[in-house]
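Hey,
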Amino acid sequence: MPKQGQSVESCIITKWFKAKGDMVSTGDILFSYETDKAAFDLESPADGMLLDVFFTDGAEVPVLENVAVIGTKGETTVSFQPGAVISTGKAVSSAPASIEVSVNKNVTKNIFKLSPGYDKIRISPRAKRLAGEKGIRYSEVKGSGPNGRIIITDIENILSGALPVSKVTGAPGAEFTEQPLSNIRKIIAKAMHSSLQNSAQLTHHMSADVRKLLESRRKIKEGLKTGTEKQDITLNDMICWCAIRALEKFPEANSHFLDDRIKTFNKVHLGIAVDTPRGLMVPTVRYASDMDLAGLSKELKSVAESCKKGSINPELIQSSSASFTVSNLGNYGVEMFTPVINLPQVCILGVCTIINRPVDLGNSTFGFVPYIGLSLTYDHRAIDGGPATKFLKEIKEQIENFRS
């Protein structure tokens, strides 16, 4: 079991994609697993036969413990079992026939606990990826593969409408469906509830004229077509850049509230909310304030992609890793919302959709101007309303005076 971060002591196996006796190739996904912060897939490190599997779905396994053995058919795996003790002290490879192995079953029983609610679902890795990308709950799909295994064709048939509704559980006629909370969902629920329960959160709303941002975005898109621009920089990248510049002027918003003290950071470590098939994750771009716009854009895309692939460093998704967070729901058409703070951070910026509003352009002339909604939630224990409003206004001014 890989060690994902210094603070991780154990991981939960959520689903196996290979079974004992299966032939595997390097890069095949063997199983998925979760820490208390994120979810990952484990790829096979070698070619061969999956000779033995020591833990089933739902098992909690200490890091660096043997989970399974890949080798050649007929090879023994007893010396690799968790808790195995080689009594002779000889190397396994030197005299395999004479080595006595005992397994401490009590240790295994006490350490490795099964988490309830993990029903085994047989699904191919390709089908799982496609289902995740398209938002299909594959737990509700009846597979057409061997032993009911869900294969890529099943997911494609659902997307095309070719699969009859009767093949999906919870179809019309069923009163309801149920499924256990995933470990990630439990973590998110606990963190959000704790945040609202243990802080004094208020939200201020303001709008910013985004004509300069939209003009910069238009030039970038045109440059990408003509080859004069090498990197695609999004509106969200620009807004994050503006928020960082505002944080440099209002460092009290770039802080952690630690009950008896406030920790204010000299650099901005920017958290960015990312929606993934496994749930909401907030990875951190460390030292974001030291980056130019192109570098920031590249790092934001990199951490978001790592979250979606399940390869993000767990240390980067701890709430204490970031000093400030941005959550953008503008692409979903959300006009106003109240983001929840990632404690111990003291602020989070919610970015809303762009709306054209009538504005006096001068000389009794009115026109429609694109405005983007900004929602700042702050912890009133750490920041008062006046400074919070001035900070939000500074973000607005950074956006309205943006220069690419």
